[in-house]
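From the methods appendix. Each design record in this collection lists the tokenized structure first, followed by the designed amino acid sequence. Records were kept in a plain field format so they could be parsed without special tools. The example shown here is representative of the layout used throughout.

RECORD:
FOLD TOKENS (211 positions):
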């Protein structure tokens, strides 16, 4: 299994939440994706407006692999409204040839559901499940393009550190930027990159109810 591609740009995750007044609505439920969610996954990925057609095809290929063999090469969680509508998802999987390292491949939120911390909720729940599975390290790869600056800031605010960069990887002037976060302390005593697994301070209106 190879790297899947760039992690999504800001509009696919969570822009900074806008302040609201009054009682917040009920938060989303987090649960594994089901085969019937494929069409909504495609609609969400396309609605973000940041993925090339080839990247959309790869996202669907990965999800179909998860449906065929759940939690073998990939795991996928969705954020569902109280009415059962899928509004975002995250996909991650174990990195072959490593000792408990995992890659986070995709995280995307329906534009209509953004500014409510859905991307943060999905990332936190993925990390919690990985920690329970004795995962050691989480890797995220994204682009160096200006469009992806909010994405890089999103991960940095959640304890991920840039640990490597491959110049001109995706195209001339478009580097591969690699982020890492440890979920367990190093057994060798070497410096760690990123924070140990724990919930960051919640964003305003962050929905933290897991399913």
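DESIGN:
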């Amino acid at each position: 299994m190879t790297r899947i591609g760039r992690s999504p740009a800001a509009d696919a995750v969570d822009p900074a939440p806008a302040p609201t007044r009054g009682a917040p609505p009920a938060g989303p439920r987090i649960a594994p994706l089901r085969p019937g969610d494929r069409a909504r996954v495609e609609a969400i990925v396309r609605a973000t407006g940041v993925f090339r057609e080839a990247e959309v095809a790869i996202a669907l290929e990965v999800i179909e692999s998860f449906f065929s063999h759940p939690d073998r090469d990939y795991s996928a969680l969705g954020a569902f409204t109280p009415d059962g509508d899928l509004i975002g998802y995250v996909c991650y999987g174990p990195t072959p040839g490593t000792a408990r390292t995992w890659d986070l491949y995709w995280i995307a939120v329906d534009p209509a559901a953004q500014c409510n911390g859905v991307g943060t909720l999905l990332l936190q729940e993925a990390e919690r499940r990985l920690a329970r599975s004795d995962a050691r390290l989480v890797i995220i790869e994204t682009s160096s393009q200006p469009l992806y600056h909010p994405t890089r800031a999103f991960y940095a605010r959640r304890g991920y550190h840039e640990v490597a960069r491959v110049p001109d990887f995706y195209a001339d002037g478009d580097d591969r930027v690699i982020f890492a976060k440890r979920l367990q302390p190093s057994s060798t005593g070497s410096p760690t990159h990123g924070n140990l697994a724990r919930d960051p301070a919640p964003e305003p209106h962050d929905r933290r109810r897991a399913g």
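APPENDIX NOTE: Helices lie at 38-48, 53-68, 118-132, 149-157.
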